[in-house]
Write a structure and sequence with these properties.
Radius of gyration: 19 Å
Distance between the termini: 38 Å
CATH architecture of the largest domain: 2-Layer Sandwich
CATH superfamily of the largest domain: Bifunctional carbon monoxide dehydrogenase/acetyl-coa synthase(codh/acs), Chain M, domain 3
Number of helices: 8
CATH topology of the largest domain: Bifunctional carbon monoxide dehydrogenase/acetyl-coa synthase(codh/acs), Chain M, domain 3
Shape: globular
Order of helices and strands: HEEEEEEHHEEHHEHHH
């Protein structure tokens, strides 16, 4: 299925959800996060906010254990399909949420004018977002994605609008020579909407899973690995990483 058809289905899905009286809000990102209109005094800067947010300091948890959640980063080459700097929020804003934990979905659409197959993996590590936004932390384990937002920044009116602005700003700064456009989709609270979105995006995730599986199989053959478990839970992950670095160095020397 083409990107055009998949994205058309996603936008149709949002329209249908709105018809069901679910809240749909569309924001437009500011060109510079420092000019964000609310002037929240929340720091957004690459690698400037490496902090661990403890449970007792957390005001709101997005996704995680016992919730519906997902994170998908999808790269496309057809820039006409992306509504650059647009933030789509299906569900309540943060100030409207009274619970301490909610279902959460994040879909980041990245447009580049290069071959996506060669660049996709570099966009999928979200540590630079976690380390770039004050009072916001991303945690991931296999098949689980969740975020913590501290009480301090929520008291400064941290919102999904601000988060979308910050994510777009960080992506464009970190990959300024590659990325041409970014569109963000958030789903908060609505568990049924998250399940439906996961189905709609299954063509995207299936493709990435197959690509990742092939890379793992190639890597295992290189290092003669015959373990059945996935790399993310392998007790020899550190040793494997060291071997990988040696192979990379060797390949550079051989060239």
């Amino acid at each position: 299925m083409s990107d055009e058809i998949i994205l058309e289905k996603i936008h149709d899905f949002l329209t249908e959800e709105q018809k069901k009286r679910k809240k749909l809000t569309v924001y437009h990102s500011q060109p510079n996060i420092t000019n964000y209109p609310l002037n929240l005094n929340i720091n957004v800067q690459l690698d400037a906010n490496k902090e661990i947010i403890l449970q007792e300091d957390t005001k709101l948890e997005l996704g995680g254990i016992n919730t519906e959640s997902f994170s998908i980063i999808h790269c496309i080459e057809n820039l006409n399909l992306i509504k650059d700097n647009q933030i789509n929020l299906l569900g309540p804003e943060i100030y409207e949420i009274s619970e301490s934990k909610v279902n959460f979905g994040l879909f980041i659409l990245v447009g580049i004018n290069e071959k996506c197959e060669e660049k996709t993996e570099i966009f999928k590590n979200l540590n630079f977002i976690s380390n770039g936004i004050e009072g916001f932390m991303i945690r991931t384990i296999p098949r689980r994605f969740w975020c913590r937002i501290s009480s301090v920044v929520i008291n400064k009116n941290f919102s999904f609008q601000f988060l979308g602005n910050a994510i777009i700003s960080l992506y464009k700064k970190k990959f300024e020579n590659i990325i041409k456009s970014v569109e963000i989709f958030f789903i908060s609270s609505y568990s049924d909407s998250i399940k439906e979105f996961i189905k709609l995006s299954s063509e995207i995730t299936k493709k990435y899973k197959e690509r990742w599986k092939n890379k793992i199989e190639e890597w295992r053959k290189k290092i003669d690995c015959d373990y059945d478990w996935g790399c993310e839970i392998c007790p020899y992950q550190e040793e494997c990483y060291d071997i990988k670095q040696l192979l990379i160095t060797r390949n550079k020397i051989e060239r």
